């Protein structure tokens, strides 16, 4: 089953509208509705808050502000995993960023709660906020580490000497904007109190984190928090941790002893979740005339919220990418009174590769060299910073296969040289690289006496295909048809996983399920070996084959269900797990990544500079594919994110207020269907035996890595205009367009 | 959203009578009004539902024109075979706007009356003279990439977001209005809208309780009609700049031309200046450039939207060239 | 007191407008309910009828997740009031099939993997059903070269343009187009 293009097992529920997301559970009866009121200043304090009108409004059951909010746990920085930490809300009168919750209104209907929220009057004493990144960029500091625990700065060789001595140099500044995950399901939570316990339906990527964070905030035993997240309407990083709607729903539900649900409005999601920081990236490349890099430096400055430090690992992108003896990377943070920076799909690689792969394109142009050839020429033998071998790197194959399939040889040799009617045509390419991570994850597999299996884990399926691939892994592991395997995800009462995020979910949970199945097989075979009633008695378990619901050894065979029923009438279970990568020698001894090469063709309107993607291809190396159908969907989806990052997505802060100005989906542009023509993803056959026993690696973020740069480079090839300030919007190209003729 | 009472009007006269009470508003498609009510920007206390009034017909007029009932949905107007063949610029404008779902709901009258998409108008915490007269204009000195370059003032730099109205402006449409007293009047679409001046909250010449009952299109002018919309996304986005052009050329000379812009002003912007620079002139790029210069002579950028001036020029030139070639 | 005086007094006291008893025809079933006049059709479906297949993504007509069919036409149910739909025939995703008996467009989305997280999917499918009817009726789109042409050829560009009112953040767009192309080629049923 593994490796087959199986349809999503949860698909029928989703296409029929029967998959219930967080806000849509009715098991606990009719809930009350909560609406969040946000601050309308970016910095300062509340000096008066008038809630009486709201409290008297029809249907209102509670108005919670900092004056009456229950005391909560504080954010404990010593808790190693940040998403386990408390997320207290309404803790005091101080306002730290625009939109911060200042009240929750709970009423019998949504309409009542929303109307009452409008009746709350808040008086503020405004403070002097720091909102403009450009103004404060020079005040950046050095964080202790960056995201994922990576070192802030690295240095190999002597960069200055290497760069100074290089024959051809690129030294450019690239900037990327604030960006948001913006899944279509809003952050939402329904909390139902049951005696001392809380039943929590929440849209969460990591159930264990939700449970721990709620418990830490409410200062209750995590065992009393029962989290359910069976379906998640997209995450992309924004649901790794829980947010204020969850805590507010939980606080209100406990106070009122009644189920309460709260969803953020789309506008609030732009203020209350956090975003990918804007970045300013200086990239320096020094190369010999033959294209070989002598020196690479990647220096990044981003914003951080002063209270919650977050440093996206943007410069880490270039650490394992190309060979060069002299190297530097650095990260700096400028504190601003804005929402926290946070993980947005492919943290580090998405903005980092926009810059580095644009710079490589500039270098190819300066050298007069084919950009594909330039990459091939800089393929390292060992990880250039860590000095360890790559586990399974096929980047050059991706480049060659991609160039062949795309027809790269037809690329316009000089920029702005091909025109078809009103369109200036350009080709661009860029590489993809994404670190592969492994974390502790457990899964339980239960075999029932009727010969069906249940996989239980708190792992989530955020659209990634977890339900489907775990069905495949368990079906293979137990020799069962897929329809006899049931997957139970997203429950905190199940064994704990690392959830969905960082592209680690599939490999972690599949490996755990695979191991649980192996343990079950061994146990059943050992029992059969010594069981006089078994047809397999005395036969060598090493020769056993589990297939079609039967267990065969040589010519003897017995239904799996009978093996279970005879010794375990109530069913039998085993757990499997993966360990933290720091405890796995392979992750120390090898550089384990996924790779790819993106190729894009764009048209730029010669009159108006409108940019339209014409086609796109990605060729990827990801180890072994668990399911080509769901994998292709994720890769294509990621590539399209890259198109958005290159051309559309930009959240704008008003430096006077600290508010995101374009905070809705009409103004914060993400790609729509008409933006996306043919996009294809091809995956090379592979198996990374260093990653895990299945040979599989993560793919949820790889598609976005570098895809934006391929589009940006195609825009340059089309127009001859290099835009280094992303996104590339038409006003940045207009001045460089050819004059209009008849 | 504050509470309101609701009634469904059964005939047009009853509707204008019902809406005469203070705080009352018409609702039809609701696609803009409810959007704004949810954000506490519009705050009616009573809604008069006119969506089922018998104003959904598109009728032939004796002069060869069409009369489009105000309750005709945008998608029905765009799909009407008479509109498609005789007024393709209108059909093109309509299908370039919003989405299929929104066009199925939005009415002709409601489209004309939709409010600006200025983000500061949408933010009740920001200064906005249109939403809250006297509170200032946060768009001036703020993020103003989508804002007006023509006809704006110190009080407001918002743009009118309609595509449909731009095509109608080029077609010399007239708006038919029914007053509370039963009187009927017709106003040319270019006179229907007001520039912001000192009262940007007053966007049209619509009197209190007056209702749009129809839009009359005179018989189509000669020449080829084109609507060209420029935007970041390929679809489902308001115009950065749009041009409705109608050009009649004969043996290389422009006989008659109509030009209207969208996305550049507080109202659909008919450019008499551009038309004057085209009529009787050779159908060449030099002429189009002159027309573009004339159209943008008084254009003023606000910073982020400075590019719109050149974008409008270039878009006009290309659209004119296409229309003249095909005419 | 005049009607407007009554309005003003009621509102200053935060009094609700009285509930309206309405009858909605949803998926061929007559449903009687009492709604606040402020209740959107979307919230009436989700919170009162507890039919949560219709999704709330933005509540402002900017994403399309709430798309349903009213009298055969696709609309954003977030931007219309429930009280306005007395006697209208409303079809939601639940009315197009159930997990064991999928409708043809639902089946095509499943086969082509035209979704990932599934949240925008009901809106995409309802939109596709409405869109195919619009094409059959010969309606032009922004992708139609000549709006005056009486017939529409359902090219991929036509599908993409016509489906652009439904945002899929997982970006399953190429698969959505493939699913709709399959549906159109197979014909109704």
UniProtKB/TrEMBL annotation, chain A:
Residue ranges occupied by any Aldehyde oxidase/xanthine dehydrogenase a/b hammerhead domain in the UniProt entry: 16-128
Any Pfam family hit: MoCoBD_2
Signal peptide (residue range): none
InterPro entries, per database record: Ald_Oxase/Xan_DH_a/b, Ald_Oxase/xanthine_DH-like, AldOxase/xan_DH_MoCoBD1, AldOxase/xan_DH_MoCoBD2
SMART domains, sorted: Ald_Xan_dh_C (SM01008)
Protein name: Xanthine dehydrogenase family protein molybdopterin-binding subunit
Organism, scientific name: Streptomyces niphimycinicus
From TrEMBL, chain B:
Coiled-coil annotated spans: none
Domain FAD-binding PCMH-type: 1-222
KW Flavoprotein (keyword) present: yes
Keywords in alphabetical order: FAD, Flavoprotein, Oxidoreductase
Pfam families: CO_deh_flav_C, FAD_binding_5
SMART domains per the UniProt record, alphabetical: CO_deh_flav_C (SM01092)
Entry annotated with the keyword Ribonucleoprotein: no
Record protein name field: Xanthine dehydrogenase family protein subunit M
Protein species of origin: Streptomyces niphimycinicus
TrEMBL record, chain C:
The entry's keywords: Oxidoreductase
Annotated CDD domains: fer2
Keyword Oxidoreductase: yes
Matches recorded under InterPro entries: 2Fe-2S-bd (IPR002888), 2Fe-2S_ferredoxin-type (IPR001041), 2Fe2S_fd_BS (IPR006058), Aldehyde_Oxdr_Iron-Sulfur (IPR052914)
Domain 2Fe-2S ferredoxin-type, first and last residues per copy: 20-96
Pfam family, one: Fer2
PROSITE patterns: 2FE2S_FER_1, 2FE2S_FER_2
Listed name of the protein: 2Fe-2S iron-sulfur cluster binding domain-containing protein
Species per Swiss-Prot/TrEMBL record: Streptomyces niphimycinicus
